[in-house]
Amino acid sequence: MATNNSLPCALTLDIPFPNARLASVALRALQVDKELSSSVTRHFATVSSPGSEQDSVVRVEYKAATNRMLRVAVNSFLDSVALVIEVMQELDVDVLDSQTPSTKG
């Protein structure tokens, strides 16, 4: 099994969400799938965006043995992120409310 010392390629992704609750939901959904290769590791956390006190950003830190392995892992992960966001848009009122302009006048 690879250790962090043997994983020279790294990337950190910050994925913002409208609020801390949605970031937490996304984090739990995305953590379920494990990496298929021991040559790739990732670490999840929720963090606050600049100027915000709530942890509304999902941060994912990747490390991999090669750039190619890193690219493949991140591409697969971004497909999962897109699916999670699509489901949130369909099922969660908070996502829609934060993206649609108010029509109340």
Give a quick set of tags describing it.
single chain, 105 residues, alpha+beta, TATA-Binding Protein, 3-stranded antiparallel beta sheet, disordered C terminus
C-alpha termini separation: 60 Å
Report strand %: 15-25%
Structural class: alpha+beta
Strand order of the largest sheet: 1-3-2
Task: Describe what you observe in this structure.
The chain is α+β, with helices and mostly antiparallel strands. The chain has a single domain, classed as TATA-Binding Protein (2-Layer Sandwich), CATH 3.30.310. Helices cover 42% and strands 23% of the residues. The chain has three helices and three strands. The chain has helices at residues 20-31, 67-91, 93-99, and strands spanning 9-16, 40-47, 57-64. The protein has a three-stranded antiparallel beta sheet with strand order 1-3-2. The longest helix has 25 residues, at 67-91. The protein is globular, with a radius of gyration of 16 Å. The N and C termini lie far apart (60 Å). Mean pLDDT is 86; it is low at 100-105. Belongs to the CTAG/PCC1 family. InterPro entries: CTAG/Pcc1. This is Transcription factor Pcc1. Pfam families: Pcc1 (PF09341).
Secondary-structure map:
Blueprint: E1 9-16, H1 20-31, E2 40-47, E3 57-64, H2 67-91, H3 93-99
Antiparallel strand pairs: 1-3, 2-3
Short note summarizing the structure:
Helix content is 42%, strand content 23%. One of its GO terms (cellular component) is EKC/KEOPS complex.
